[in-house]
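Re: your question about Putative signal transduction protein

S., sorry for the slow reply, the queue was backed up all week. Below is exactly what I fed in.
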Amino acid sequence: MAQQHEPKEPIQTGKEAAPAWNSPAAKAAHEITSGVFRFADLSHPAVAMLFTLGQSSRRTRLESRRRSPVLEKERRFFAQLPADRPDENDRQPGVEPDLMALADLELPSPPHVYLALQTALADRHKTTGDIADIVSADPSLATRVLKLVNSPLYASGRKVDSILRAVSLVGTEQITLLAAAMSVMTHFRDIPQELMDMSAFWQHSLSTGVLARLLAERAGVRDKEYHFLGGLLHDIGRLVLFQAMPELSRKALLKAKSKQMYLYYAEQDEIGYDHSTIGSVLFRKWELPPALRLTVLYHHIPEISEQVRENAVVHLADIMSHALGLGLSGEFFLPPLSEQAWDSLGLKPSDLVAVADAAEASLPSLFDSLC
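Result:
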């Protein structure tokens, strides 16, 4: 297991502005963030920076006195944990899935609009107007797509008031994938509330997508739109498990808490495979691009993939989302950072400050409109 280190004082990020580190909000933020980072290696400069950013972000939200369900859930979770730290997370990543168990899982069909868009894309006689008509036929979907392309994430400089204009701005292939992702957000409506707060889940997913896009741009990794979509859908396998296997999923959640272990390890123990594996299988069934499927499959273990740098983007974005407390996916502990993945991106810890600032500036409006 990674060594545990407690920072003696906050790392200066330029955001502190004479913080009252002894205030109740600061103490609560420190306690929650320390819980999230319980198994993290704080001797790594990037992880240490994320600790400081996470503590600062939580303190700001606590001081605002606005109700934060995510912070309340984090505080409640860590308040119930014993102080000792078991060694359940000291295992090798990349456990082979139980293929017999996987064969019994019934996978959901892709959203209808995605199938229609895929058919249109394959027809060389179809135009951008035809693509726009398919998206526009679903008013709820069209509204979500327009809200997204009008967000600071795309920053076109002009208001996009039609799906046709959105297609022209983003491109037919990207708008198809974007529409698929937006459709998925309403595809899993019957997840039991006791298993997952879906608003918090999509906040984590959306923030991971936004962070992935920003990280790809900053690191000079191509196809930043793919990374946004990969981040948005990286935990989709968990929803499949919640929907298809609620009792086993509940056991995994309870085991992760009682044993203080990563949820994806508990999934492997209780179900035979984790959400990353089932997400990649689902993407293969839906015939999504291989790059997205591999991003989902390797988002916890990019170092064993053939394309470490490409898969490192969503890996780091997922960790940043957990560190900053931007939503919840069922995982309360910060997943371990792959040193190989971090090195492949060529980033500095200070880059994380700029990315976090940009993400936190754009996310509140996206949360309000999409989650």
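The CA atoms of residues 134 and 362 lie 28 Å apart. Residues 109-187 form one domain.

Happy to talk it through on Thursday.
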